[in-house]
């Protein structure tokens, strides 16, 4: 009588198929969990290495973006102060025009002189308050300007020029000698004031141009960083829809594999029962 049938080969084959299905399912579930199809070099050494390089470049571009953002803030602060100085100079012109009148009483002229002195002090206040992050490009403390890295290799820089808007030091030509004591001195002060208004307007134009260059470079860097991030994503990110469909297929495969193992295990007993009968 037959008491035993050797079925080890069939069982081993079925078990290997089940283990393969289980392993494939585990990896697919891992990709769904992490959102990545390439978690390490073992998954795809070429894609992993390329993605790591691009991530490093992206990190460098983030540093460039921060640098250019700081430049924008310093520039915006300086431009805002220069605009206020420009407006104030125009207000001062009204004061000087009024002071050129020859029929002013001593008290009236004194009042115009006091107002004019306060306005000059206000210019200095605007200049000294034009600081951002300890950088002031309007008070003459940065004659070489302030430079900022503009590319990921730190080989390109953009510079905000240093200027001096303090009265009597070049751009604002008004100084302590400009006064309104007499109609004649008021007329002389008017000439200095007109030159100051012209100078400030020209400097503002240059400052806005520098600001636009920084803005354009920052926009380029941001677009480049986005392109790198998208490139990394295409290489390592999992397609969640595709992975979900794959998991469903693998679950069915796993179930069939388990049934195969059960069938193979039970087959010898079924055959033995036939022989016994």
Task: Characterise this structure.
This protein is mainly alpha-helical and 277 residues long. It has helices at residues 8-34, 45-99, 106-128, 183-236, 240-276; strands at 146-149, 157-160. The chain folds into 2 domains: 8-35 and 238-276; 70-235, Up-down Bundle (f41 fragment of flagellin, N-terminal domain). It contains 5 helices and 2 strands. The protein has a two-stranded antiparallel ribbon with strand order 1-2. α1 (8-34) packs antiparallel against α5 and α2 packs antiparallel against α3. It starts with 7 loop residues before the first helix and ends with a helix. Mean pLDDT is 81; it is low at 1-7 and 271-275.
Topology:
Layout (H helix, E strand, L loop, with lengths): L7 H27 L10 H55 L6 H23 L17 E4 L7 E4 L22 H54 L3 H37 L1
Antiparallel strand pairs: 1-2
Query: What do we call the CATH topology of the largest domain?
Result: f41 fragment of flagellin, N-terminal domain
| Whole-number tally of structural domains | 2
End-to-end Cα distance, whole Å, is 11 Å
Q: Output the CATH class name of the largest domain.
A: Mainly Alpha
H-E string: HHHEEHH
The helix count comes to 5
What is the correct CATH architecture of the largest domain? Up-down Bundle
Query: Helix coverage percent of residues?
Result: over 70%
- pLDDT < 50 stretches: 1-7, 271-275
């Amino acid at each position: 009588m037959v008491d035993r049938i050797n079925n080890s080969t069939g069982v081993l084959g079925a078990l290997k198929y089940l283990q393969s299905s289980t392993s494939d399912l585990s990896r697919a579930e891992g990709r769904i969990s992490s959102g990545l199809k390439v978690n390490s070099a073992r998954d795809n050494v070429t894609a992993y290495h390329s993605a790591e390089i691009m991530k490093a470049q992206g990190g460098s571009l983030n540093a460039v973006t921060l640098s250019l953002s700081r430049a924008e803030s310093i520039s915006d602060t300086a431009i805002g102060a220069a605009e206020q100085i420009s407006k104030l100079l125009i207000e001062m012109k009204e004061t000087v025009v009024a002071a050129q009148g020859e029929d002013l009483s001593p008290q009236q002229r004194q009042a115009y002189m006091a107002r004019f002195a306060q306005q000059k002090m206000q210019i200095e206040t605007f200049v000294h308050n034009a600081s951002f992050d300890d950088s002031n490009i309007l008070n003459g403390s940065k004659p070489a300007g302030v430079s900022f890295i503009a590319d990921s290799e730190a080989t390109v820089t953009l510079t905000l020029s240093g200027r001096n808007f303090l009265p009597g030091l070049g751009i604002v030509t008004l100084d302590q000698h400009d006064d309104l004591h007499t109609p004649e001195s008021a007329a002389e002060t008017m000439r200095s004031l007109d030159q100051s208004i012209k100078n400030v307007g020209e400097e503002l134009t240059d400052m806005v141009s520098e600001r636009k260059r920084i803005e354009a470079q920052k926009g380029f860097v941001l677009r480049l960083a986005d392109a790198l991030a998208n490139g990394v994503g295409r290489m390592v990110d999992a397609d969640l829809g595709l992975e979900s469909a794959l998991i469903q297929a693998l679950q069915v495969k796993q179930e069939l594999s388990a049934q195969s193992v059960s069938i193979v295990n039970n087959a010898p007993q079924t055959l033995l029962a036939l022989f016994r009968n």
